[in-house]
Specification:
By secondary structure, the protein is α+β, with helices and mostly antiparallel strands. The chain has 16 helices and 17 strands. The strands form 4 sheets. Strands 1, 4, 5, 6, 7 and 8 form a 6-stranded mixed β-sheet that branches. Helix 5 packs across helix 6 and helix 8 runs parallel beside helix 16.
Length: 505
């Protein structure tokens, strides 16, 4: 007979014990959330959304690669495993999507950062983090704003005119007059090169997004311009655990954010009694200031120099001990002064004597026709650049460059493709930071769960050996590899505290 038949059962019995969310519930105790959220919850009034349920819902959204709160609650309404993970019965109604959104907006970023730090500590407790070597990189995450809705900023004075009429609440232009003139010349050159090409010429100095004023215009070679934020991450090279993540503005170079990333990562690792010694990054984080500050912090950096850096000047030899150049005619170019170029970078200038250049047979092709003497300049951090380039030229430096590409780039690709960072549904830098912290928590929890499932106490495979076998244990970036001399195969072994040459078993 057709109809509804009541069934007396438990939701836990309907979900398999080996289900992902059940294993996550058994591995991680989410009660750590309550003390962190307690200062922002009132003791009276209407019952609020349980902070543990709130954090679990956000984690499910990133684990299921969902960027919409509506879609997330629709999935949780139908998914038995998610209901059991949240602690809800079959007949118990789930919270509204607007409740989740308002709770996220009202909580500060520091709470989400504290939750992320706790998960990093859990990974450290499981032995997933070595701490000594960190790989740093960044990626653009599309903001919740449209390029077609950009508006012009207001002029600093009423006498200056902009291309379009700016509203009264628009932010003011903060760029200098020289910088604005440079942009106008750049746009004029583009119009001259492609007069029939459609599209607006916009810049972060002259335009902004009314929907998200903190989003910045960015682009990469071969890709369209978009409004985005910069997701900066630091990844431990042992098991690719994210040790730091931050949402930055997308209109600055990566080198402006390196020291902040290093300091935040080092402070978090020091809280768990781990010492960071090595930093790996690409050429986008290269600058003389960063090289100097890393050395002052006692850190070893492996960061290639930017393409504009010149190792030497053709025809001139630099004497580091006396801080001077010598030309091909044995004339000396001594240090003159430190100046700042048009891009705002400090430079050291070296000059030859005008009397010596006047009688030099190579004066016309060396100094030119108008200059009185030959002038050279280089960065004040030349010694730091040379030490960095010498370190990168070694075998360890080449290995570190390959290690960075195989460590942090796959992590960023996974976050964007599988953990809900295709685009940001939340607005503002604070909203972007909250999303990034939860996405990194979901990524680290999945790492921790997989590592926990591979522990010897959980699943042990014993293979009988005909006799004593010799194993060679190699140490490579905190990962230990074993070489079986009988089979000729290399397999990965569990992490150990010390490196042993040969072991008989």
């Amino acid at each position: 007979m057709l109809g509804f038949h009541p069934i007396q059962t438990s939701l836990i019995k309907l979900v398999p014990a080996h289900h992902f969310y059940q294993q996550l519930l058994q591995t991680v105790d989410f009660n750590f959330v309550r003390p962190l959220f307690a200062p922002f919850y009132s003791a009276g009034g209407r019952p609020s959304l349980d902070p543990v349920v709130f954090v679990k819902l956000l984690l499910v959204g990133h684990l299921e690669n969902i960027t919409s709160d509506r879609k997330l609650l629709e999935l949780a309404q139908l998914h038995l495993g998610i209901r059991a993970f949240l602690g809800y019965d079959l007949a118990q109604p789930l919270p509204w999507h607007s409740t989740v959104s308002r709770t996220r907006q009202r909580l500060p970023v520091s709470v989400f950062e504290a939750c992320f730090t706790h998960i990093v500590g859990l990974c450290i407790q499981q032995g997933l983090v070595s701490g000594h070597t960190q790989a740093v990189d960044s990626a653009y995450i599309k903001a919740n704003a449209s390029m077609s809705r950009l508006q012009s900023k207001r002029s600093r004075t009423s006498t200056q005119a902009t291309t379009n009429a700016a509203p009264a609440n628009a932010p003011c232009i903060t760029a200098s007059v020289d910088r604005l003139q440079h942009i106008q010349r750049f746009h004029a050159a583009i119009r001259k090169a492609a007069p029939t090409k459609s599209g607006r010429l916009v810049s972060n100095l002259t335009h902004y997004s009314p929907a998200d004023p903190e989003a910045r215009i960015c682009f990469k070679t071969g890709k369209v311009r978009q409004l985005a934020y910069t997701a900066s991450v630091s990844v431990d090279v042992a098991q690719h655990v994210i040790t730091h993540i931050h949402a930055d503005l997308a209109d600055w170079r990566d080198s402006r954010y390196l020291l902040a990333i290093v300091d935040a990562t080092q402070q978090r690792l020091n809280g768990f009694a781990l010492a960071m010694t090595t930093v790996i990054a690409d050429a986008g984080y290269s600058s003389g200031e960063n090289y100097e500050q890393l050395e002052e912090r006692g850190l070893t950096g492996y960061i290639p120099a930017h393409g504009k850096y010149k190792v030497e000047h053709a025809g001139f030899t630099y004497d580091a001990a006396r801080d001077r150049y010598t030309c091909s005619q044995s004339k000396q170019l001594t240090f003159d002064k430190v100046f700042v170029d048009a891009q705002g970078n400090p430079k050291k200038r070296y000059m030859a004597k005008a009397a010596e250049c006047k009688v030099c047979p190579l004066a016309a092709q060396c100094k030119g026709k108008k200059a009185r003497e030959k002038r050279l300049h280089h960065t004040p951090y030349k010694a730091h650049y040379e030490r960095m380039l010498a370190r990168l030229a070694t075998r360890v430096g080449q290995r570190m460059r390959r290690l960075r590409a195989s460590t942090v780039e796959p992590v960023l690709g996974s976050l964007i493709t599988y953990y809900g960072l295709r685009h940001l549904s939340k607005k503002g830098q604070a909203g972007a930071a909250k999303v990034l912290y939860i996405a990194a928590m979901a990524y680290n929890l999945k790492k921790c769960l997989r590592f926990h499932a591979c522990q010897p106490g959980n699943s042990v495979i014993s293979l009988p050996a005909p006799g004593p076998v010799r194993w060679l244990i190699l140490y490579f970036c905190n990962s230990h590899w074993c070489y079986n001399r009988h089979s000729g195969k290399i397999i990965k072994w569990l992490p150990i505290l010390e490196c042993v040459d040969f072991v008989s078993c």
